C-alpha cells in the first residue's frame, strides 16, 4: 500500500516565490516545484524533472486590482530538478535545484516614448536546497505517516546579473542571492474504504541578508491535498491515474533593503490562497507523469504588487534502485 | 555501481572548464581615465517616475556599467533611463563604473530623491 503512496509526487510549487513587483514585492525565487511525500526506501534514487510556466499581468493593491501599470506582463519558464536518495528506510537526503530559461518583464506600452527598451530578461540558476528528511511516525494500522526535513538554501549566484553592463531589475534576477534555512513537515493519512488520501505539507523558509544588503521576507506555506485513484471504464486506463486537489496558503513577511533610510519595503509581503488541481499517471511503478495548474482563489498584497494570474507545471519522475 | 564511476569524472570535467576560462589581458592606453561627472536630468522624481542619467568620462575604450540599489535601469552606454519603484519614497542611489582598455576603473554615485 505504502509503495503506491510514495510514488505519488505532489506539486508544491511556491508560486509566490516568483511573484513580480516593481515595488520589490517579489519574494524571491522558486526552490522546487515538487515535493516527495515522505522518505524513500533504502537505496532508492528518485529523480524528478519539471517545467513550470507562470504568467502575471495585473497589479493588486491589498485585496483589489490596481490601475497601476509599469509592466504590461511578466512571465517565466523554469526548469527544476529534485533528486532524493534513501540512505535508510527512515532517512532520505534531497537536493532541489532550479534554472530559469527566461524570466521576462514587458514594460507598459504607455511608457514607450520615454524608455530606451521595453523588455528585460534574466536567466540562469537560482539556488540549491540540500535537505535531510526523517521518518518520524509510521503506523500501517491507522494508517498514518509523518516525516520532517531540515535543509540549507545555497544561492547559485551571489552577485546580480547584468546585461550589456546594466544591472538587471530585481524582478528578473534568477537568484535572490541569499543563503537560507528550510524546514518542512509532511503528514499523510489514508482512508482505505473510500480510496482517499489526505496530505499536509508545511514549509517554512528563512533567508539571511544577501550581499546586496537585502533581506527577503520569511515565508510560511501550508498545503492540504486530497488524492483519489481514478477509475476508468477502459481497461487499459485503470489503476494508473490519480487525481489530486490542493489548497495552498502562502504567507510572506516584508522584505528589507538596508541600503535605504527606511529599510522595510512596504510593498512586499502577501497572503495568498491557491487551488491547484493535479493529475498523475504512474507507469510500471517507477515512472510518474504529472500535470497541474495553479489558480489563485484569494490574493492580498501589501501596497501595490503584481499578482499571479496562472501557472502550469509538467513533471516526470523516475525511481532507480541502486543495488550494492 | 556503474553510475558512481561516471560521477568521479564530474570534478575533473569541472576543473577543465574552470581552467579553460581565460580573462582578456589588459591593453596599454594613451590617455588616463577621467570620470568627469554623473548627472541626472531630474534629481527629484515621483514614485514610478523616470529620469535620464548621463555619465561623462574620458579615456581609451571606455565601458559604462550601471547599477541601482532600488528601481530599474534601462538602456546602456553613457546615458541610461532610471525608473524609481512606485512604492518606495526616499533616496535611491545609482552607481556608474567606467573602465578603460587597461582595466582601470572609476566609480561615481548619484542620489535620486523619490517624493
Task: List key phrases describing it.
heterodimer; A: 324 residues; mainly beta; Porin; 21 strands; 61% strand; B: 115 residues; alpha+beta; 8 strands; flat
What would you say this structure looks like, in words?
Chain A has one domain: Porin, CATH 2.40.160. In chain A, the strands form 4 sheets. Chain A has a 12-stranded antiparallel beta barrel with strand order 3-6-7-8-9-12-13-15-16-19-20-21. With 324 residues, chain A is mostly beta strands. Chain A has 1 helix and 21 strands. Residues 1-8 and 13-33 of chain A have low confidence and may be disordered. Chain A has one helix at residues 2-7, and strands at 10-11, 34-35, 44-56, 58-62, 64-66, 71-88, 91-107, 119-139, 144-155, 162-163, 166-167, 180-191, 196-207, 214-215, 219-230, 241-252, 255-257, 264-265, 270-283, 287-307, 310-321. In chain A, a hairpin with a 2-residue loop joins strand 20 (287-307) and strand 21 (310-321). With 115 residues, chain B is α+β, with helices and mostly antiparallel strands. Helices cover 17% and strands 45% of the residues of chain B. Chain B has 1 helix and 8 strands. Chain B has one helix at 2-20, and strands at residues 34-40, 44-45, 50-58, 63-68, 72-74, 79-83, 90-99, 105-114. Chain B is flat and about 55 Å long.
Outline of this structure?
The complex is a heterodimer of chains A (324) and B (115). Chain A is an all-beta fold.
Rounded radius of gyration of chain B (Å): 21 Å
Give the topology string of chain A: H per helix, E per strand.
Answer: HEEEEEEEEEEEEEEEEEEEEE
What fraction strand of chain A?
over 45%
Largest sheet of chain A, described in full? 12 strands, antiparallel, barrel
- What's the structural domain tally of chain A? 1
- How far is the N terminus from the C terminus of chain B? 65 Å
